[in-house]
Amino acid sequence: MDVKIVSSQEEGAQIALKIFQDQLAKNNASVFGLATGSSPIAFYEAAVNSDIDFTKATSINLDEYVGLDGNNDQSYIYFMKSNLFDKKPFKVNYLPNGMAKDLAAETKRYDQIIDDNPIDLQILGIGRNGHIGFNEPGTPFDITTHVVDLTPSTIEANARFFENKDAVPRQAISMGIGSIMKSKKIILFAYGESKAQAIKDTIEGSVTTHVPASVLQNHNDVTVIIDQAAASLL
Ligand code: GLP
User: Fold this and answer.
1) Domain annotation for the chain: domains and CATH numbers
2) What ipTM did this prediction achieve?
3) What residues does ligand 1 touch, defined as CB less than 6 Å away?
């Protein structure tokens, strides 16, 4: 893993932007795997303020809450539109449909989308418990898109975005670790002290399903962009 310790999220965003630009220079019809959460926001801001052109590119998001539609400001489709897609149009944007009546069919539909559009570059954040997407500790490394029961720690961590803890959805649809690992390149962002243990376990710990992000040690092209606080236990 190529670990870059940055002094600000803006600096991290510029490093990521350069990797995106290099990828688009190779192929302007690239497929980008995108993430939500606070960690990639500075990167999306930098992308919006750049002259980068995504109009031939495809995006595939990692996850979506079950039961939230696009009008709900906590849905990930809403997040992606307001932070990126409304300002930087792509050829096509894919996200799991959290309102699907048949969730099993929705996971199959999403796997087909990923198979049809192999991901060139995947963005990741990381949960405090080491989750990536919504692949919680214990998730098998070869899993594809699946419906997840969120752990109490993830519900707690994400409650800050909702009116209260009870308003946080209990389930999500997530791209699987197996699909994430098939991406040709991966960038993981982590900022702040609350991520320090997860970052230590991811980079220096053993590869174990107890820390989903530790699987990234088995990938040959991962850039980890972290600040001093997230790097403080390394
Ligand atoms: C959620 C998302 C993850 C994200 C994580 C960390 O659980 N499903 O994709 O990486 O939160 O979020 P943040 O970047 O806000 O710390």
Assistant:
1) 2-227 (3.40.50.1360)
2) 0.95
3) 35-39, 62-63, 125-127, 133-134, 154, 158
